[in-house]
Q: What sequence folds into this?
């Protein structure tokens, strides 16, 4: 039996909003934008709440961004680091996922506008993370390779392998050099991990797969604007990581700012040039806000929403921001928390507890960040870790890095597959995912 009403379809005694089939509800509706670390830890903790929860994400999967570089460098397949969002929450009652881009928010009518329709909310949680920051440089934006999501990581993998294939059949020494030159801008954890993985590719794969290419022909350059690599970490970690990289043959260029890239030549502010067919941009991110929130709630430059100690966005009483997009200034973190996974996870959990408390008429508790440490891996048996006041470098840090990353990967299958791949790669000095499934073509 089907009845039609204005804007709604009444079918099998459930009233549906016709635009996206979300059941109407008497319970409060919590709408979450973004199924990243913050969004999923928030919803996980809401499991038995008396509310309807709706999650929007432009992808139908959660991405474990810390391991994207392994997809880019053929160490892991993408399905090891991505996990279906619907599957994460399939045991949650009255939970609804819609794959959609949220295009705006109407804070007067408490409505989100998405590519699949509009939906009203009682509580809105914005956890949209960040996007690549090109600092307004259009030549870099047009020609460089970003690495912020799975398709971009696969683009890098394809381009890297395509360029090596081309170099293998080229007679022109200049062209060959350009094809085998890899330049990475930004020596934060992403740039360092990428550079290390490319150096390992050169060491263990190149000579076996491409006997006509000498190891020294493939060059990896890591270009950094500041005076050290891994600048958010301790000076012990920075120095150790630089030594590891150089020992692996990576050329590290500190105090060097990239000025432009035309698809062939990377030019630096101090007048140097690198001929390189692969230029990876890992030099910065900026918040990915959604239209409709009062502009004064956004911190200029960083594009992060200013939030109070309950993650409530300045000027609103039912709109929260979590994770990378949230800027909570505290005495310990006067410029906001670092844009890494732990603050996002911890804020998500705290807000879930707070909203549950609020629905029961209890007071919310302020968020307090517990710093569990920072790590970066450079290569086989080589990583650095700052944990509280302790600093580690080498095989122990590398083991720790692997355990922590396996633990936080979403899904048992992904953990098993990743563990198996790492063990296989370690024993065989291999990176088995070196496949050009979808060739990269510059737009
Ligand atoms: C390459 C790389 C390596 C990293 N390595 C580490 C590391 O080693 N350790 C560490 O702690 N941190 C690392 N980080 C940082 C860490 O991944 C982030 O701090 C963390 O992901 C932030 O979580 P979040 O939930 O705020 O945002 P995200 O995880 O970025 O999630 C945002 C989600 O929102 C969705 N979204 C955005 N806008 C919209 C919209 N308008 N409509 C619908 N959906 C939308 C996105 O699709 C995404 O799923 C790394 C980041 C990158 C890019």
A:
């Amino acid at each position: 039996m089907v009845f039609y009403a204005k804007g709604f379809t009444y079918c099998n005694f459930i009233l549906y909003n016709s635009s996206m089939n979300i059941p109407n509800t008497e319970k409060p509706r919590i709408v979450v934008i973004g199924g990243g670390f913050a969004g999923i830890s928030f919803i996980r903790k809401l499991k038995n709440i008396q509310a309807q929860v709706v999650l929007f994400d432009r992808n139908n999967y959660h991405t474990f961004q810390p391991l994207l570089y392994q997809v880019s460098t053929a160490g892991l397949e993408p399905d090891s680091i991505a996990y279906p969002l619907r599957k994460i929450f399939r045991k949650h009652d009255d939970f609804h996922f819609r794959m959609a881009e949220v295009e705006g928010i109407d804070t007067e009518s408490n409505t989100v506008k998405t590519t699949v329709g509009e939906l009203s909310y009682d509580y809105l949680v914005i956890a949209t993370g960040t996007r690549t920051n090109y600092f307004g440089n259009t030549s870099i934006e047009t020609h460089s390779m970003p690495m912020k999501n799975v398709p971009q990581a696969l683009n890098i993998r394809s381009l890297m392998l395509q360029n090596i294939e081309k170099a293998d059949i080229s007679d022109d020494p200049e062209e060959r050099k350009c094809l085998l030159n890899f330049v990475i801008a930004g020596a934060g954890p992403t740039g360092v991990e990428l550079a290390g993985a490319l150096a390992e590719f050169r060491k263990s794969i190149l000579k076996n797969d491409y006997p006509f290419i000498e190891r020294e022909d493939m060059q990896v350059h890591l270009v950094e604007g500041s005076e050290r690599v891994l600048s958010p970490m301790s000076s012990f970690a920075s120095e150790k990581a630089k030594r590891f990289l150089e020992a692996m043959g990576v050329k590290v260029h500190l105090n060097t700012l990239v000025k432009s890239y035309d698809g062939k030549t990377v030019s630096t502010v101090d007048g140097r040039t690198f001929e390189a067919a692969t230029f990876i941009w890992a030099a910065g991110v900026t918040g990915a806000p959604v239209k409709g929130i009062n502009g004064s709630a956004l911190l200029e430059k960083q594009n992060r929403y200013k939030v109070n100690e309950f993650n409530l966005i300045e000027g609103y009483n039912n709109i929260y921001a979590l994770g990378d997009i949230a800027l909570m200034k505290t005495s310990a973190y006067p410029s906001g928390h670092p844009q890494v996974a732990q603050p996002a996870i911890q804020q998500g959990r705290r807000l879930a507890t707070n909203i549950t408390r609020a629905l029961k008429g209890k007071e919310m508790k302020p968020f307090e960040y517990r710093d569990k440490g920072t790590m970066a891996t450079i290569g086989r048996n080589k990583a650095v870790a700052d944990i509280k006041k302790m600093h580690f470098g080498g095989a122990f840090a590398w083991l720790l890095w692997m355990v922590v990353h396996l633990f936080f990967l979403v899904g048992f299958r992904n953990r098993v597959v990743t563990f198996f791949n790492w063990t296989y790669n370690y024993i065989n000095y291999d990176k088995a995912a070196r496949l050009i499934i979808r060739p990269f073509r510059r737009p």
